[in-house]
Write a structure and sequence with these properties.
There is one protein chain. The protein has about 425 residues and is of the alpha+beta class. The protein has 3 domains: about 120 residues, no CATH class; about 120 residues, 3-Layer(aba) Sandwich (Rossmann fold), CATH 3.40.50; about 170 residues, Sandwich (Tumour Suppressor Smad4). It is built from 17 helices and 14 strands.
Length: about 425
């Protein structure tokens, strides 16, 4: 009997609030108390009836008052979290843009419901390849794929999923996709993004790049506003629009003395930073702690013993010589899991921010805290300038290692150049 009265009361609440669903209960828990009771008592027909009733009024709201509906996304979240309706949004048998809009709300993708629904329907026709690095994030990327695959398919529509099987394999998979796909999504950390970028950058008209930051270091995704983690990455694919970004290329010296060329999206480094990358490459610390903790620990270890280099570098017609510890040529603002190496860098200004750390006055391990805050540029040992192209060579016969986006490449001499507006990345 109580269940019948509760249903009647709930129907009355919904009927009164047809134009602005839940508007009158926005500050109270009366509705949620009713839902909790119904959740405990309802079964069979009652459950289907409840789902259908909510679905009907939610669709009506989306159709009549889409902008008002956006204000109630947090209430839909409360329904999902507090009232035991976690599967309601996936069970509703709805069709068309309204169903898409409801799913958008359930996944907390904010914005104008109808516009987003239409955009999502259009994206369903985009040919997409998802490249997953199963080893990223200490193996979590591969282990968690199955539980996120459905949400990703609901968000962007049909796609082909492939797993990289070895180092550089993601580059081959991306290059293959560049010939016939409209969008390629990299699932992994900065290293995975770098591999995918190297597969796309050589194409005459590269497909759009999407990123799900599922690695130990996700600096590229964070700086672009995509964020770190599966939920943030899927939301960005849902909400985001293509953003044109610059890429960098580095021509370096391989171990056998031949020359190699590599693309990068975020940052290329020489000297001490290259040594840190080399030490961390197969480090258990990186797998256990992630980049944010592992890189500083390796940096402290390398800094204690590193002797530096005598180098010459040339840019914009000027040539300089310095005794240095490290050089960073940054397209983005941060690297190494959140170190703000170039706090003012922009992905789309056609310039690198170059950070040169001199050998003297010697930087201390405690200065690393300034790096995370982006306040290291004021240190006496740090030189900062902008350029579109720069060359490096050592003058003391030493080997100065270089890396790009955390991938160890080779050594100097090397040339680094920016390529403006080279790639489109889906970002908020």
């Amino acid at each position: 009997m109580r269940t019948g009265r509760s249903l009647q009361r709930l129907e009355l609440i919904l009927d009164i609030n047809r134009q602005f669903l839940f508007e009158s209960v926005i500050g109270g828990d009366d509705l949620f108390a009713e839902l909790r009771h119904l959740g405990a008592a309802a079964a069979g027909t009652t459950r289907r009836r409840r789902h259908a009733m909510f679905g009907e009024h939610l669709v009506e709201l989306v159709d009549q008052q889409p902008r008002a509906a956006v204000r109630h996304v947090h209430l839909l979240r409360r329904l999902r979290d507090r009232a035991g309706f976690g599967d309601m949004f996936h069970q509703l048998d709805l069709a068309g843009a309204e169903a898409v809009a409801i799913k958008i709300y359930a996944d907390e993708c904010f914005g104008h419901a109808r516009t987003k629904a239409q955009g999502l329907k259009e994206r369903h026709s985009v040919k997409t390849r998802i490249i997953i690095n199963p080893a990223a994030g200490g193996g979590r990327s591969g282990r968690h794929w199955a539980q996120h695959e459905r949400a990703l398919r609901d968000t962007i529509g049909p796609f082909e999923a492939v797993f990289s099987s070895s180092a550089r394999n993601a580059t081959a998979l991306a290059a293959e996709a560049a010939e016939s796909y409209d969008r390629v999504v990299a699932v992994g950390g900065d290293g995975t993004v770098n591999e995918v970028v190297n597969g796309l950058a050589g194409a005459k008209s590269p497909p759009e790049l999407g990123v799900i930051g599922a690695g130990t270091g996700n600096d590229f995704a964070r700086v672009l506003g995509i964020g770190s983690g599966w939920t943030a990455g899927i939301a960005a694919l849902c909400d985001g629009r293509p953003r044109v970004v610059d890429l960098g290329s580095i021509t370096f010296t391989k171990r056998d003395g031949t020359r190699g060329r590599h693309w990068f999206a975020n940052c290329a480094d020489l000297g001490l930073i290259g040594e840190v990358v080399a030490e961390a490459e197969d480090s258990r610390l990186k797998r256990w702690l992630g980049s944010r903790l592992a890189y500083p620990l390796h940096a402290i270890s390398v800094l204690r013993r590193y002797k530096g280099h005598r180098i010459a570098f040339e840019h914009d017609g000027a040539r300089r010589q310095m005794d240095i510890l490290a050089v960073a040529v940054a397209n983005g603002r941060s690297f190494g899991g959140g170190m703000k190496i170039a706090p003012d860098a922009k992905f789309d200004d056609g310039l690198f921010d170059v950070i040169v750390v001199a050998k003297e006055p010697r930087v201390k391990a405690t200065d690393l805290r300034l790096l995370y805050a982006g306040k290291h540029l004021s240190l006496p040992a740090v030189t900062h300038f902008r350029t579109a192209k720069i060359n490096f060579e050592t003058l003391d016969g030493s080997m100065m290692l270089c890396d790009a986006d955390g991938e160890l490449l080779g050594s100097a001499p090397c040339e680094i150049e920016v390529h403006p507006k080279k790639l489109k990345v889906i970002a908020p």
